[in-house]
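Quick one - inputs below.
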Amino acid sequence: MKFAILSKGDDKSNNLCAKIKSYLTEFELEYNEEVPDLVISVGGDGTLLEAFHQYVHRLDQTAFIGIHTGHLGFYADWMPSELEKLIIEIAKTPFQVVEYPLLEVIIRPKNGGEESRYLALNECTIKTSEGSVVFDVEIKGDHFETFRGDGLCISTPSGSTAYNKALGGAILHPSLEAIQIAEMASINNRVFRTIGSPLILPGHHTCLLKPLHDKSFMITVDHITHTYKDVKSIQFRVGKEKVRFARFRPFPFWKRVRDSFVADDRE
Ligand code: NAP
Ligand code: MN
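Output:
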């Protein structure tokens, strides 16, 4: 089995990375950054997002696992104190995997230019630095509303505990093949009207945004920001691809939610 490691870059994470690398190499596993079967991210959830985007072109062949060196994470759910146990489990390959749904984003430019396609593990947001965004929102081919406000956040189930949660969105279990649309400060008055609540779309429904004004948009895909001008439409749906996490022990999603946001009994 081939493995790669990605560090957050601080001393604690770097030291842990060096340890993992030497232990796993002793177990005769091959360190290979080009074509790893397992990518170990050491840092936080943000580090795992980086690892995901680094290997997004080979999701069917690469599984991920996260160790947190800061506070408990959603993707980074192994503690440094569990390192020995984890190393032995990894060395015992093959391992079980759990698959989570992803968000597919397709940005189509005006004038028939080439479209861009992205996969998000957490979410995609659309904002502008030029006042409010104004778009027609279509769901499954039908006009739903005209949105005017700061922006929209379209998230995956596993991303529902991140930005989406701060916007008042619901937390979705990652076994659900769905995407969630959450508003950022929509303008609601007698002229402009939006639904005002988060929407959850099933796997076979597509959401399409069509800008009504020529603005430059900041389109974030997880931690990465892209700038687009002359946008004809932005399409969202559950991706065909899935992200795979190596699973060496049960750590139920609702327990992770409780430990992160309500109370962590282990502390
Ligand atoms: P960051 O500013 O360090 O991330 C913000 C926080 O979100 C960090 O505490 C991060 O954990 C945590 N996080 C990331 N994914 C999560 C998940 N799936 N569930 C729960 N918490 C999660 O930037 P970053 O580390 O590069 O992460 C990018 C993410 O930040 C974006 O995908 C977006 O979800 C989130 N974000 C949130 C807000 C907000 O809540 N108002 C605003 C902008 C962006 P770690 O510290 O372990 O990395
Ligand atoms: Mn971070």
